[in-house]
Amino acid sequence: MSDPRISHIELDDATILWRNADIEQERRIAMFDLIEDNVFKPVRAFEAGHEGPYRLRLSVRDGRLSLELCDDAGELLETMVLGLARFRRPVREYFAVCESYYQAIRKASAQEIETIDMARRGIHDAAAELLLERLDGKVETDHPTARRLFTLICVLHIRG
Q1: Could you give the CA distance from residue 52 to residue 7 in angstroms, rounded to a whole number?
Q2: Could you report how far apart the first and last alpha carbons of the chain are, in Å?
Q3: Cα 10–Cα 50–Cα 52 angle in degrees, nearest 5
Q4: pLDDT digits (tens, 9 = 90+) for 32-44
Q5: Domain parsing of the chain, residue ranges
Q6: Against a cut of 0.85, is the pTM above it?
């Protein structure tokens, strides 16, 4: 029976050098939401008869995102590599607006928080669209899954 989704996701802890409590909370929420509801159909693996669910391990090496895809038993199916150059600016912008958002939650008015949150969602949505473009032909997925994956890509970019 076909079940094209991610059942387990792991981030390469060696890639993540530092994160604060706010970022850790973002990571936990993104991972929980991703496992609870996602669409993830890797084209080659699916066509080869591996119809899911999948285990996914994300890491960044040499400026590239590595997506190690395994079947639910942990058997490696393939490793996809995406260049991250086009993500540098959205990641930077996302971190900047998130920092403003975290500060605003502690002391700003509801209207100021809403304005910053709208900017944060806009950057997040645009980055998810970029990720969908980069995955085109490799993985069939949806916008909410791409948004959560972008959050995890950002976590992998933290350098302290």
Answers
A1: 8
A2: 44
A3: 50
A4: 999 999 999 999 9
A5: 6-156
A6: yes
